[in-house]
Here is the input.
Amino acid sequence: MISALRLQFRVKMLHRPMRAPFLFLMFMGLGLGMPAWAHETDCECPGTEEAAEEPVSGGQSRESMANDSTASQWTFQFAYEYSDWREDTLSNGEPRPKGNRDMVQLRVVAPLTKEMTGLPFTVLPRLTLRNVEAQGGVSGGGNAELFTLVLPLEWATGRWGIGPQINFPADNEQLGTQAWRFGFATALLQRALDDKLMVGLLIQQVWGETDKTRPDSVVASPIAIQPVLNYALPKGYSLNIGESACSYHWQDSGWWIPLGFRVGMLFIGRRSAWSLYAE
Here is the structure.
């Protein structure tokens, strides 16, 4: 049973490959004054279908790339999540303990293209940093993660990739798991209906020494399965099922299945795309 209601506000800025220092300054502009900066971009008409449908390398539209986590482009994503926990009873009759209150997340994707590396495939390192506030007002670094998605298969309307993943320990046990965990991530994405529809799947599985009663054992963390479903509407709007992943707990033999819904708005410029959405 789902006992948490989450409200998320996210800002996502995507940019074609360019020098890292300039991207860092641009991200600082996003964090310090995003509404004014977004207004001053060189987009002639934000969200217009003409700019969104302009094809880039590979024939994929810029609107589609803005909603595609496997596209070869620099990506900066800032997210805030607030949780409101409801009373719930577990199967053993005990009340469900309350989880974290809110979370601030920063995610960066730095593509390594075939042209840059000379390899026959694109590599997408993705770093996710989280600051979590637990019950009682305790806050600090949550479980950060880094996974490197290698894309050995790419076709006209989709991609498949797989790669290693590292989960970093949280600052303390109230904010997440205090253990290093290692595993893999794999993603499959397919576009259809002239890039209006995007479907796919992201799977993440890590292992680590997370059981304090068995300090020398390696335990499988719950496998995270995140379905992808996005439909692009006219004028830059889009509907999406969000980024909340389903998970299967190996030790408890149980599923956790969230229900998510997202409404987004895309602003297309000559060199950048801004995606604002709430879920």
Notes: The first strand starts at residue 4 and ends at 15. The chain has four helices and 16 strands. The chain has a mean pLDDT of 78.
